[in-house]
Amino acid sequence: MPSRISLGEIDAEVVFKDIRNLHLTVLPPRGRVRISAPRHMALDTVRVFALSKLVWIKAQRENMASQDREAPREYLERESHYVWGRRYLLRLVEMDGAPSVELRHRTLVLAVRPNADAAAKNALLAHWYRDQVRQRVSTLVVTWSRTLGIAVPRVHIQHMKTKWGSCSPERRSIRLNTELGKKPPGCLEYVVVHELIHMLEPTHNERFKALIRTFMPEWEDRRRELNQLPVRHEDWGY
Questions:
Q1: Residues 223, 204: Cα–Cα separation, whole Å
Q2: pTM to 2 decimal places
Q3: Do residues 148 and 196 make contact, with C-beta atoms less than 8 angstroms apart?
Q4: How does pLDDT run across 182-195, given as a tens digit for each residue?
Q5: Minimal CA–CA distance to 101: which of 71, 115, 81, 73?
Q6: What is the edge-to-edge ordering of all strands in the sheet holding 80-83?
Q7: Which of 16, 72, 112, 136 sits between 20 and 30 A of 153, alpha carbons compared?
Q8: What domains sit in the chain, N to C, each tagged with a CATH number?
Q9: For residues 94 and 112, is the Cβ–Cβ distance under 8 A?
């Protein structure tokens, strides 16, 4: 069972795991705070750590409260969709052939079978976004791994509700959110660099900040851009 600690007006959930370092996460949409901690660590030690991050926690919660969210997707004609930071209007084409997705000027053309429901359209578009991210990220990961002097990790692309990306140094792998296909390309590069640097430094300590400033001096501008466009509507389970 998770433990709970109080950080003044904010409560945090603490989950003890077989890990080496503390991991602090502020979860959308309402800014729930979750901390993963090594099993051997005392709860008071976790609380001291969390209190030292309280200013950052509050800033993250404020950002989430102010960020726009997409309305639930209905896949109707001329519905707005974003691809690499640009807005496209949806066009539906019914056909008996294989379903497909295509960009034509400022239109996102969804070719589907007659009577395809919203779930089928969503699955088709989700698969397409995954392919878009995978195609762009393959070169980015190789290039930046060489720049950082690390072995090229395995890359997994998937829909993630609470993170743009994650890194597992022990497994030599990173995960990237398919939603990055909706953001400007520079945002994808920022997340790739962020996660690859975690191969060198697992935590967000001063060494991590120094590394990301060295290799991507404009990282804060890219992070700001990442949070400007509306994020996906989710039916959050908590």
A1: 15
A2: 0.71
A3: yes
A4: 999 999 999 999 99
A5: 81
A6: 80-83, 86-94, 107-112, 100-104
A7: 16
A8: 3-50 (no CATH), 80-226 (3.30.2010.10)
A9: yes
